[in-house]
Specification:
Blueprint (H helix, E strand, L loop, with lengths): L13 H16 L10 H11 L4 H4 E3 L3 H10 L3 E4 L2 H6 L2 H6 L4 E2 L5 H10 L3 H10 L5 E5 L3 H12 L7 E4 L7 H9 L5 E4 L6 H14 L1
Parallel strand pairs: 2-3, 2-4, 4-5, 5-6
Antiparallel strand pairs: 1-6
Helix pairs in contact: 1-2, 2-11, 7-8, 8-9, 9-10
């Protein structure tokens, strides 16, 4: 049997060492120069969460989006997610330090009722409810493409103007198309083009912004 040599790393050093490995591998791949300095920590945290280096190319970040997201958090913006999993992954204690909250309305009774009555999805109804909060908002969508479609429609209708949209739903049906809609808006965005993404990616991007704030 081959011997397996494990690195001796203390628990509090694991994340630090992980980011060092990511930096080393990006350099070895010749991809370091593909990441703008202001986007570096967002891209690296997504890679850290997924162990997937394809996000170097998949993540589309509009000019200044990271800085705008950080500024919004500092100004007390709230984060609206489309899954409880994404919400649970966000560092809510850090967000609260700036006066913000993390919301997910998907399990609310009024959302289930509204979705059933209107023949739509809970994600769509959730976006409509979020628009009524009357607070600066960052949307972190990691699961439901219908949430992105509804956001696009409300933006086009002038009903909402988010501070930032994190559009990273994962899947095969309408996922690619919904992300492309967000790329057409003038709202700052961080979008994972293609099929990849997920609630963990949405939370990772939120935390990357929070830790820089």
């Amino acid at each position: 049997m081959n011997q397996i040599h494990l690195q001796q790393v203390l628990p509090h050093e694991i994340e630090k060492r992980s980011f060092e490995i990511i930096t080393e591998e990006l350099a070895a791949r010749g991809e370091t120069q593909e990441i703008l300095p202001e986007n570096e920590l967002v891209v690296k945290r997504v890679i850290h969460t997924t162990a997937d280096f394809e996000y170097v190319k998949n993540l589309c970040i509009s000019p200044g989006a990271v800085a705008k997201g950080i500024a919004a958090i500092k100004n007390g913006a709230c984060i609206v997610t489309d899954t409880q999993m994404a919400r649970s992954g966000i560092n809510k204690k850090k967000l609260a330090e700036f006066g913000g909250e993390a919301f997910c309305f998907m399990s609310d009774e009024d959302i289930a009722k509204k979705a059933k009555e209107e023949g739509t999805t809970r994600a769509t109804a959730s976006m409509e409810k979020a628009a009524s909060l009357n607070r600066p908002l960052i949307f972190a969508i990691g699961n439901a493409p219908t949430a992105l479609v509804k956001l696009y429609e409300m933006i086009e209708e002038g009903k909402i103007k988010p501070e930032l949209i994190i559009g990273v739903p994962v899947g095969f049906v309408n996922v690619v198309e919904a992300k492309e809609l967000i790329l057409q808006t003038e709202i700052p965005y961080i979008v994972a083009r293609g099929r990849k993404g997920g609630s963990n990616v949405a939370a990772a991007i939120c935390n990357a912004l929070l830790y820089q704030a």
